[in-house]
Amino acid sequence: MTRRMFATIAAAAPLASGQVKKAPVGLELYSVRGELAKDDISTVKTVAKIGYEVVEFFSPYFNWTANHAREIRKVLDDAGVVCHSTHNNANYFDEANLAKTIELNQIIGSKYAIAASAPRMAGIDGWKQWAEKMSGVAARLKEVGMATGFHNHQTEWPAIDGQRPMDVLAANTPQEFVLQFDVGTCVQAEADPVAWIHAHPGRIKSVHCKDWGAGPGPDRGYRTLFGEGDSPWKAIFEAAESVGGVEYYLIEQEGSRFSEFETVERCLASWNKLHG
Question: How confident is the model at residue 216 (pLDDT cuts 50, 70, 90)?
């Protein structure tokens, strides 16, 4: 048997035995934003020790220098954690800022520069115009081996003039434009999370595992800990992995009665019970 034949058989073995690599679980660092603001390097190390495999930085990262981004990359590498994506303000994709967005993401190893939200829109036409702009950004990033996308919030699900902004955005952007799925906001808006995934095969590259709990109380709403709310997680996981094309999951917690680190530790424990 030649070395090439052996390598081919070895590579195919997991598939032949029915083994599929599981999408890793990470943390959207907004969940520990207070700690991150005090000491980002120490925070990343602590998140890794808790057991998260992936992190996603959010908008303050844009203020880094290239040298600090390299420091962060070393911490990630040393801790065995990866950063697949960042959350970005809409203006980070403007011509004046795009080069820096690309540079910082490439230094830390991020492939996806995701729009964390959209600018204020003037109706459905505004969404179509923004989709056109972001399609242009997608083409620019594709040239350097990156991609962009959008992270939904509750406001994109209700219809405007008979059309949901999320549907308009999806229909007017290319297949490689990532529909980063925030579950909790979809559930709050009473949209169907599983139907959304099935409607957009291959575009749900990452899922924000944020829960939503209806009803009164200080620990409901988005303060509901992951796994303790109204989201149908088992069905979401099945759809994301069989149809959506999910590459990694991200726990996101807006707050709770516990400290930030204890909160995300509890969320990871729930993840291990629900998904494993």
Answer: confident
CB 43 within 8 A of CB 56: no
Q: Looking at the domain assignment, is residue 6 inside a domain?
A: no
Global pTM?
A: 0.91
Tokens of 38: 């005090």
Quick one: which of 168, 68, 152 has its CA closest to 114? 152
Count of the separate structural domains present in the chain: 1
Rounded Cα distance between 98 and 87, Å, is 14
Closest CA to 93 of 177, 28, 171, 168: 177
Average pLDDT, the chain: 92
Residues in the chain: 276
Cα–Cα distance measured from residue 183 to residue 86, given in angstroms and rounded to the nearest whole number: 18
Q: Residues 206, 112: contact at Cβ < 8 Å?
A: yes
11 within a domain of the structure (yes/no) = no
The CATH code of the domain that includes 114 is 3.20.20.150
Task: Convert the pLDDT of each residue in 49-99 to its tens digit.
Answer: 999 999 999 999 999 999 999 999 999 999 999 999 999 999 999 999 999
- Two structure tokens written together for 144: 């350097």
Is residue 17 over pLDDT 80?
A: no
DSSP element (H, E) containing 264: helix 260-274
By the 8 A CB rule, do 26 and 247 touch? no
Predicted confidence at residue 9, as pLDDT, reads: 33
Q: Is residue 129 part of a domain?
A: yes
Q: Does 247 have pLDDT greater than 50?
A: yes
For residues 146 and 17, give the distance between their C-alpha atoms in angstroms, rounded to a whole number: 32
Tally Cβ neighbours within 10 Å of residue 206: 29
Look up the domain containing 267 and give its range: 23-274
